[in-house]
């Protein structure tokens, strides 16, 4: 072989190897802190897990090079499209949410695949469509690459690449998902399998152990958990647009705590925390205490309340549970009402009518209402006559236009929050003594950072955790107890104060409640208004607290 041919052959190999190295470097740069799992395992004294993970990490790097350069075979032809798909899938995830696929997102995909797939196609499909248009050309090119480069690597070495998929899955299991810094060819299928096979406790709840007496404060306790309501876009919280004119007109019967922090930026985790009373210092909940502790239903039943759960997100014929509720928890609910309507934005109206009827009954009742609220795409969350702020998103239009998305969201607020409370409170003349505690499960990213994912993502911005916290009551003494701390608690409350507040309203003694479950809304929260990002039960490498205020995030 002539010198120039040898030189060109070496040059081709050098360029090819360097290109894959650059590809890996770019992909690993998707992580905001690539070395976090290394430091975490070391700090926890898990040196064996770290050592084995490092070996597996380098094995996966070797496997990545062999994806591109091992000899052509039937096995490689049939499996290569899947590996390349997972690679482009990870790029799409980063394009949408500024973060690679994490355990929390994988768990969402596996658990609610049909809903997730529909949401992706309708809301962000056009943004990632180019990646999948080039998938077939990329597959053809990479499949022929070994012949084009004439690297002469035997086809049997491709087993390293395939084994890396299995080994990274084992590695994720072994480290509880904390070490997940692998190339996406192997990381994505492994983390999806890990999420699908990951176990959460689904058994009976512990019994309530309360030795004291009861001093019931109110006949009707209503916890209203809205969907995706961002508190800083409510006019009642000084937003520039009139999104809540009715609430702003109320002179009595309400105490507004301003901006509050959700417990999580994901619906299922925040609802579980609210129902279980999990404390902030118990997160991450590795032992899944939140799934074993007595739920709010057990406490209110013990206090003599009739329990009603109104679910405006599920239809009656679905007969399902959501947000980690199971049949054991549901056994403490006396009445479950599912009112999701075919026209989605009508669901909350039906729920409101059911709530009104319950508020007129004479018996002591605890009611939890999960509203339909404002699901994306936002234009489905309100009727056409509430198209007040324009221009808005249209059917099939991706939500990457912030002005249109924000206008659609504000229209949803006018319908789902302001008009809903107006119609509810207008019937309040014959209600029994009541207290409503109103919040939302999480906030929303409305293209605020240029990304399309709205919530429940690993690199959350502060808007995903900003929720309302408002108390409504027709009892002056109860309102005064909350109003007396408003000056010190305004813009500082959080989801973790809801459970102790409900216990206090239902008659449990305050010292016992504070000791076991922390501060209520009538006390100072004692901690910064921030929300947890990552898997509540400690799986995966995402584990951080995000403040709802920008200055505090800059200090971290």
Protein architecture, described:
This protein is α/β, with parallel strands linked by helices and 556 residues long. The chain has helices at residues 3-28, 36-43, 47-69, 74-97, 103-111, 113-133, 135-149, 159-174, 184-197, 245-249, 267-276, 296-302, 327-330, 347-360, 402-425, 476-483, 486-489, 498-505, 510-517, 550-555, and strands at 220-226, 254-261, 306-311, 335-338, 365-370, 434-440, 466-473, 530-534, 543-547. The protein has 2 domains: 3-197, no CATH class; 220-555, Alkaline Phosphatase, subunit A, CATH 3.40.720. It is built from 20 helices and 9 strands. Strands 2-7-6-1-5-3-4 form a 7-stranded mixed beta sheet, with helices on both faces. The protein has a two-stranded antiparallel ribbon with strand order 8-9. α13 (327-330) links the parallel β3 (306-311) and β4 (335-338). α5 packs across α9. The mean pLDDT is 92.
Quick recap:
46% of the residues lie in helices and 10% in strands.
Major sheet: arrangement of strands: 2-7-6-1-5-3-4
The CATH level-2 architecture of the largest domain is identified as 3-Layer(aba) Sandwich
The span between the termini is 60 Å
Rg for CA atoms:
26 Å
CATH classification class of the largest domain: Alpha Beta
Number of domains: 2
Q: Spans with pLDDT under 50 lasting ≥5 residues?
A: none
Q: What's the name of the CATH homologous superfamily of the largest domain?
A: Alkaline Phosphatase, subunit A
Query: What structural class do you assign from the helix and strand content?
Result: alpha/beta
CATH fold-level topology of the largest domain: Alkaline Phosphatase, subunit A
Basic shape = elongated
Largest sheet entry: 7 strands, mixed
Order of helices and strands: HHHHHHHHHEHEHHEHEHEHEEHHHHEEH
How big a fraction of the residues is strand?
5-15%
Mean pLDDT value = 92
Total beta strands: 9
- Assign a percent range to the helix content: 40-55%
If helices are DSSP runs of H or I spanning 4 or more residues, what is the number of helices? 20
